[in-house]
C-alpha cells in the first residue's frame, strides 16, 4: 500500500516500469487493487456524467481513445478518456498513468480523479481544463478565441517548467514524462498550464545514470540520443521542453510541412536566425503590441539551450526555471548546435507515418517491437507507430 505522499514503494516502481512486459489479458483490476487516492467509478457513473457519451460532449480524440466532457453527480466537471477496447498498447499506458500519478499532486500537473475498469471498459477521469490543449488553441489552424499575450505565454512556459522540475527533482524516484508536447499541455481558466498524459512515463531511480528502454514519444520532440540509442535520462524531457518553448514563443508547431522545405523545422529555423542575429523574426507577430521582445528572445535562447544535441549541455529543469524567471543568467557562450530532427530525417524511411505521431518502439540494440502495428523505420531503428497518433 502507498503510505508516503511523494515517494513510491519499490513494488510500484517495478509495476510502472514493467508494464511493457505484460500482455493484454492481464487482470487489470488486480493491478489496481493496492492503489490509494484513486476513485474507482462505475461505468454507469460515467455514462450518466456524459449523457451516455453523447457525441456533442466529445472534446478530443487521441491515439488511444476519445475524450468526453462530463459532470459527475457531485457537480464536478471532468474530462473522461475512454480507451479503445482493443488496444493492448493503450492498456499498458492506462496502468502506467494510474500508477505514476496516483500518488503525486502539483498545481502544474493534471489531476487524475479516478478510473473505471468494468468488462472491456478502461476509462480515466481527469479534472476538466476549460481552455483545452495548446495544440488546439495556440498552435491550431482553426479559429481560437484566446488572445495569447506575452504574459500568458510566459506564465505557460514557467508553469510547465515548474511541473517538470517537480517530476524530475522533487518526486522520488524521479519521473521522466517522455511525451512533453503541445497536446499534453492543458490550460485551466486562468491559463495555469497542467502537464497531462503520463501513460509513457518512467520512474527513474536516482542511482542509475540512464535507463535503456523502448523508444516512445512524439516525432519532433524526441531528443536525438534517445531516438538513436534508446538511452533515457531526464535530459530527453528537457529537450522536448525546449522545443515546446520555441513553439510557444513562435506560435507555430515544430514541424509544418506546408512551409518551404528550409522553413519546415522550427528548431532549425530558430537556430539559423540566432546565428544570423535575427531572433526577433521568430517571435510570433500576433503579439507584436504587448510583447517584451528582449524577454521573448531570451526565452527562445533558453529553448535552444534545452534542445542542444549533447544531453550534458542541457540545463536541469530547476536551472531552466531560474533562467525563465531571470534569476540566473543564460550564458550564451554555452549555446551549441541543437539536436536537429532534419539530420535524423536524412536517414529515415517513413512508411505510413503521420505528423505529430506518438509512437513507441524499440531501439536498435533491442529486439523489435511486439506491438504488431505499422512498422516504421527511422534511421537505423524500428519504430512501431500507434495508429492515428
Ligand atoms: N483534462 C482535460 N480537460 C480538457 N480537455 C482535455 C483534457 N484531456 C484531454 N483533453 C482534450 O482531448 C484531446 C485529446 O487528448 P489525448 O490525450 O487523448 O490525445 P492527444 O494528447 O491529443 O494525442 P496523443 O494520443 O498523441 O497523446 C486533447 O488534445 C484535449 O484537447
Ligand atoms: Mg494527450
Low-confidence residue ranges? 1-15, 19-25, 347-389
Instruction: Report the mean per-residue pLDDT as an integer.
Output: 79
Helicity, as a percent range: 25-40%
Which architecture of the largest domain per CATH? Orthogonal Bundle
**Can you tell me the CATH topology of the largest domain?**
Transferase(Phosphotransferase), domain 1
Our measurement of the CA-to-CA distance between the termini, rounded to an integer number of angstroms, reads 35 Å
- Global geometry: globular
Q: Which CATH first-tier class of the largest domain would you pick?
A: Mainly Alpha
List all distinct small molecules, including ions and cofactors, that are bound in this structure.
adenosine-5'-triphosphate, magnesium ion
Number of helices: 11
Family: Belongs to the protein kinase superfamily.
Pfam families: Pkinase (PF00069)
Binding site for ATP: 81
Organism: Tagetes erecta
Describe it for me?
The chain is 30% helix and 18% strand. With 389 residues, the chain is of the alpha+beta class. A hairpin with a 5-residue loop joins strand 8 (185-187) and strand 9 (193-195). It has helices at 10-17, 28-32, 43-49, 88-101, 150-170, 224-229, 234-250, 266-275, 293-306, 317-324, 341-345; strands at 39-40, 58-62, 65-71, 77-83, 112-118, 121-127, 174-176, 185-187, 193-195, 202-204, 211-212, 215-218, 231-232, 358-362, 375-378, 381-385. The two termini are 35 Å apart. The protein has 11 helices and 16 strands. Magnesium ion (MG) binds next to loops.
Amino acid at each position: 500500500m502507498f503510505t508516503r505522499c511523494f515517494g513510491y514503494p519499490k513494488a510500484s516502481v517495478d509495476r510502472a516500469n514493467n508494464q511493457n512486459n505484460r500482455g493484454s489479458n492481464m487482470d487489470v483490476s488486480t493491478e489496481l487493487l493496492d492503489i490509494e487516492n484513486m476513485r474507482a467509478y462505475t461505468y454507469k457513473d460515467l455514462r450518466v456524467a456524459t449523457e451516455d457519451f453523447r457525441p456533442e460532449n466529445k472534446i478530443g480524440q487521441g491515439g488511444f481513445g476519445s475524450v468526453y466532457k462530463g459532470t459527475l453527480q457531485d457537480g464536478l466537471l471532468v474530462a473522461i478518456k475512454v480507451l479503445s477496447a482493443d488496444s493492448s498498447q493503450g492498456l499498458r499506458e492506462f496502468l502506467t498513468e494510474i500508477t505514476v500519478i496516483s500518488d503525486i499532486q502539483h498545481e502544474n500537473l493534471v489531476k487524475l480523479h479516478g478510473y473505471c475498469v468494468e468488462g472491456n471498459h478502461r476509462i480515466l477521469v481527469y479534472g476538466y481544463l476549460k481552455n483545452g490543449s495548446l495544440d488546439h488553441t495556440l498552435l491550431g489552424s482553426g479559429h481560437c478565441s484566446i488572445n495569447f499575450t506575452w504574459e500568458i505565454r510566459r506564465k505557460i512556459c514557467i508553469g510547465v517548467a515548474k511541473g517538470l522540475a517537480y517530476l524530475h527533482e522533487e518526486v522520488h524516484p524521479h519521473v521522466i514524462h517522455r511525451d512533453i508536447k503541445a497536446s499534453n499541455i492543458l490550460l485551466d481558466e486562468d491559463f495555469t498550464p497542467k502537464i497531462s498524459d503520463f501513460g509513457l512515463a518512467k520512474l527513474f531511480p536516482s542511482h542509475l545514470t540512464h535507463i535503456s528502454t523502448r523508444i516512445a514519444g512524439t516525432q519532433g520532440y524526441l531528443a536525438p540520443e534517445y531516438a538513436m540509442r534508446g538511452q533515457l535520462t531526464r535530459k530527453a524531457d528537457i529537450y522536448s521542453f525546449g522545443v515546446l518553448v520555441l513553439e510557444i514563443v513562435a506560435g507555430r508547431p515544430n514541424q509544418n510541412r506546408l512551409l518551404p522545405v528550409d522553413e519546415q523545422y522550427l528548431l532549425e529555423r530558430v537556430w539559423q536566425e540566432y546565428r544570423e542575429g535575427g531572433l526577433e523574426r521568430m517571435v510570433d507577430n500576433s503579439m507584436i503590441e504587448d510583447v517584451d521582445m528582449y524577454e521573448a528572445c531570451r526565452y527562445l535562447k533558453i529553448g535552444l539551450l534545452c534542445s542542444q544535441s549533447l544531453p550534458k549541455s542541457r540545463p536541469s529543469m530547476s536551472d531552466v526555471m531560474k533562467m525563465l524567471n531571470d534569476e540566473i543568467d543564460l550564458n550564451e557562450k554555452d549555446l551549441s548546435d541543437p539536436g536537429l530532427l532534419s539530420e535524423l530525417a536524412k536517414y529515415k524511411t517513413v512508411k505510413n507515418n503521420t505528423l505529430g505521431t506518438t509512437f513507441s518502439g524499440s531501439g536498435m540494440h533491442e529486439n523489435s517491437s511486439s506491438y504488431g502495428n505499422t512498422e516504421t523505420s527511422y534511421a537505423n531503428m524500428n519504430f512501431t507507430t500507434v495508429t492515428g497518433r
